[in-house]
């Protein structure tokens, strides 16, 4: 059968998580959450906090409170998230782009590959990353403020795909946590894992990643593995 009888599918889009995927900020978030939790008398080891990074803030807090047996009201949880945001912004000067992140996004743009950022962070903390990455203010970015539920629900990635006007089934989600990959599966997208957020290759693969890279630079040098038709 002639190939022309098949409909031409759109170029797959890439939907990027932010923290630990494009910028080296996971541990700043961990320290900010530890500071916020300490302010209400909850003392947790940083490794326990790290395992929850990538979830929505509300779900993150609820999960940790369940583990500790502490009870907070909805207003107190909201205030806790504000304390976290303030503590994170105080460390913003230590946050850096991950190796290759800017070059990867620039290449995708030059090659006409659609992409967007979808993060569980709220706009007040997430949008500062645009300048770090050398991106314009109109960069397609979906933040926690714009959806009903964040990861591991698929809302962020569904909204990002809609922003690009692309069916989620024609997207690949790039993230550093198991929560990103779980959300990707629920959105019907392929998952790509990044080890730059602290999760290991096996964990990311078990969560559904069909490719795993060390960081954006590693992905940039091996883009052919994703089946993208590029001129390079």
- N-to-C SSE series? EEHHHHEHEHHEHEHEHEH
The order of strands across the largest sheet is 5-4-1-6-7-8
Poorly predicted sequence stretches spanning 5 or more consecutive residues: none
General form: globular
Beta fraction: 5-15%
How many E-type strands? Answer: 8
Mean pLDDT: 89
Give me the number of helical elements. Answer: 11
Spatial gap, N to C terminus: 30 Å
Helix content: 40-55%
Provide the gyration radius in Å: 18 Å
Look at the helices and sheets and give the structural class.
alpha/beta
What characterizes the major β-sheet? Answer: 6 strands, parallel
Structure, explained:
This protein is α/β, with parallel strands linked by helices and 232 residues long. It is 41% helix and 12% strand. It contains 11 helices and 8 strands. It has helices at 26-38, 46-50, 57-68, 74-89, 101-110, 123-126, 128-132, 155-163, 178-187, 201-206, 216-221; strands at 13-16, 23-24, 96-97, 115-118, 141-142, 171-175, 190-194, 209-213. It has a 6-stranded parallel beta sheet with strand order 5-4-1-6-7-8, sandwiched between helices. Helix 10 (201-206) links the parallel strand 7 (190-194) and strand 8 (209-213). The mean pLDDT is 89.
């Amino acid at each position: 059968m002639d190939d022309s009888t098949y409909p031409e599918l759109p170029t797959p889009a890439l939907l990027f998580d932010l923290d630990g995927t494009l910028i080296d900020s996971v541990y700043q978030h961990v320290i900010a959450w530890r500071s916020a939790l300490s302010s209400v008398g909850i003392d947790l080891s940083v490794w326990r906090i790290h395992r929850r990074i990538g979830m929505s803030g509300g779900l993150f807090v609820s999960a940790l409170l369940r583990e500790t047996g502490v009870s907070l009201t909805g207003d107190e949880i909201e205030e806790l998230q504000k304390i976290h945001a303030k503590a994170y912004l105080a460390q913003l000067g230590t946050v850096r782009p991950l190796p290759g992140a800017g070059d990867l996004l620039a290449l995708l743009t030059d090659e006409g590959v659609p992409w967007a950022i979808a993060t569980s962070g709220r706009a007040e903390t997430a949008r500062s990353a645009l300048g770090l990455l050398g991106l314009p203010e109109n960069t397609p970015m979906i933040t926690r403020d714009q959806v009903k539920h964040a990861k591991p629900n698929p809302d962020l990635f569904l909204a990002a795909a809609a922003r690009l006007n692309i069916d989620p089934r024609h997207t690949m989600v790039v993230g550093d946590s198991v929560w990103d990959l779980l959300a990707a599966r629920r959105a019907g997208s392929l998952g790509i894992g990044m080890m730059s957020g602290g999760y290991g290759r096996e964990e990311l693969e078990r969560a559904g990643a069909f490719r795993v890279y060390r960081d954006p630079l590693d992905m940039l040098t091996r883009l052919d593995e994703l089946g993208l038709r590029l001129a390079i």
